[in-house]
Amino acid sequence: MVQGLEVFPTAAALARGAAERVAVVLDGALQAGGNASLALSGGSTPRSLYELLSEPPCRDRIDWTRLHIFWGDERCVPPESAESNYRMAQQTLLRHVKTPPHHVHRMRGELPPAGAARAYELELRSALGAGPDEIPRLSLVLLGLGEDGHTASLFPNTPVLDERRRLIAEVFVERLAASRITMTFPLLNNARTVMFLVSGGSKAAILRSVLQEHRPALPATGVSPQAGELFWYLDRDAASHLTEREIP
Ligand code: 6PG
After folding, report:
1. What is the Å distance from ligand 1's center to 221 Cα?
2. What residue owns the CA closest to ligand 1's atom 5?
3. At 154, is the secondary structure helix, strand, or coil?
4. Predicted confidence (pLDDT) per residue in 194-239, tens digit
5. Whole-structure pTM value
6. CA dihedral over 123, 226, 208, 51, signed as positive or negative
7. Do 171 and 180 contact (CB within 8 A), yes or no?
8. Which long-range contacts (CB under 8 A, 24 or more apart) does 176-180 make?
């Protein structure tokens, strides 16, 4: 199902390549008319991508006023916390672009997780005009990869991996002793385009396990957009355990 896999020499080149792809995908989605939707990843990898998207030339290739911005997941912390995925995106990208405030859909990490997840699903459905039994089709989802194979906040051995009805769910992660809010597989796998960004030698082993061994116990292996595109954007260090002939 992998539509494309690109390996860049450095993390900086990866960010530039990913920014180009994001601009192409979003511009294409907006050409179709109406609004488009972008789900941002958390963590540290996308920071440099967001900074590139926040300045010319990429910034000016996207009509940010017609984008709805979501998050693939959020830590259960207040928005001003250094842990907040919203805060990172707000600082590196959103304060520099013209997305209207009512198009920025923040997961309420400061609220009790279950209620925040339920509220977010209602907000997502409403923003994208999806009925209670429909699965909205996000234009573009950005994802990272954890060293344990998690993506968004779909962590190994958590019940949220088996969620097939809810689009947004809360999850308590034992290893972190913390709750998270996350998009679930039904929503992620209905996206038009999913892009993984993976950087650094610390991800090389898990990336091989996901991309070449397809270990089902690893949540990232479960991301496979049924009628969409899946891109892996890697730097050379992250790709160092992949063998040429086995790259999908
Ligand atoms: C989060 C992310 C998470 C992240 C991976 C990789 O909230 O942390 O959504 O899934 O993408 O853990 O994180 P790094 O980019 O920091 O390695």
Report:
1. 15
2. 146
3. strand
4. 999 999 999 999 999 999 888 889 999 999 998 999 999 999 999 9
5. 0.97
6. negative
7. yes
8. 178/75, 178/76, 179/76, 179/113, 180/73, 180/74, 180/75, 180/76, 180/113, 180/153, 180/155
Q: Are 24 and 53 in contact (CB under 8 A)?
A: no
Q: Which two tokens stand for residue 70?
A: 């979501």
Residue nearest to atom 2 of ligand 1 (CA): 42
With a 6 Å cutoff on the Cβ, whether 146 touches ligand 1 is: yes
Single-letter residue type at 110: E
**Amino acid letter for position 192:** R
Q: Is the CB of 189 under 6 A from ligand 1?
A: no
Ligand 1 site-directed mutation target among 14, 41, 197, 235, most atoms within 8 Å of CB: 41
Task: Record the tokens describing residue 229, joined without a space.
Answer: 């595109």
Tell me, in angstroms, the distance from the centre of ligand 1 to residue 123's CA.
23
Q: What is the pLDDT of residues 109-154, one digit of tens each?
A: 999 999 999 999 999 999 999 999 999 999 999 999 999 999 999 9
Residue 53 to residue 61: CA distance in whole angstroms? 9
What are the start-end ranges of the H helices in the chain?
Answer: 11-31, 47-53, 58-61, 85-92, 113-128, 185-188, 204-211
Ligand 1 centre distance from Cα of residue 41 (Å):
7
Atom 12, ligand 1: residue with shortest CA distance: 146
Please give the pLDDT value at position 2: 62
- Verify whether ligand 1 is closer than 6 Å to residue 152 (CB atom): yes
